[in-house]
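How a chain folds remains the central question behind the approach discussed here. No coordinates are needed to read the tokens, only the vocabulary itself. For completeness, the protein is quoted in full, as a sequence line and a line of structure tokens:
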Amino acid sequence: MSNFNTYMTGIDTVFYRNLCLEKGELRQYKKNEYIQKEGEIFPYCGLLESGIVKYTCRNVTEGKDYNIGFSFPDEFVADYPFCIYGMKAEINIQAITDCKILFCHSDVINNEYDNSVKGQHMARIAAEQLFNQVYLRYINLYRYTPEERYIQLLEKYPDIIQLIPLKEIASYLRITPIHLSRIRRKQTLYMIE
């Protein structure tokens, strides 16, 4: 699923890929296994070699987890910037499928950020691009209806329905699985007419 995480189009991903390849450690995770849990310190950024991961946050009042994002092969896996600064994680990262992730310790990344002009530039660009992606997603929660967000998701990533369970997509769209079923049924009726 190329370019699901749009922040990647604005940064030189070769810099991070090379760090992971040269100084990283390959880890494997089984389907549904947690990579990181909220409240833990997990000082790693990773390159997803295979599989799909989801990012969730917990609404303590409702006692419910919500999907806030996904990573696909050749994308990064991290609770950025918390992993970089050795802070407690604000989110959970969990394997949706079996995964192989090449993780690089934040000390290695911070060393590059601190000791090279390119690293300093990359740190700034990565933060800007990630902020832009998150900001647009936030605005779109208000700008578009759930149905419009679902249609946009399918237009950009038509294979997502085959890769991710519908209950996970519903959570990502901030709707219930029942609401998503209604939207899908409505879309099917439009296609028949």
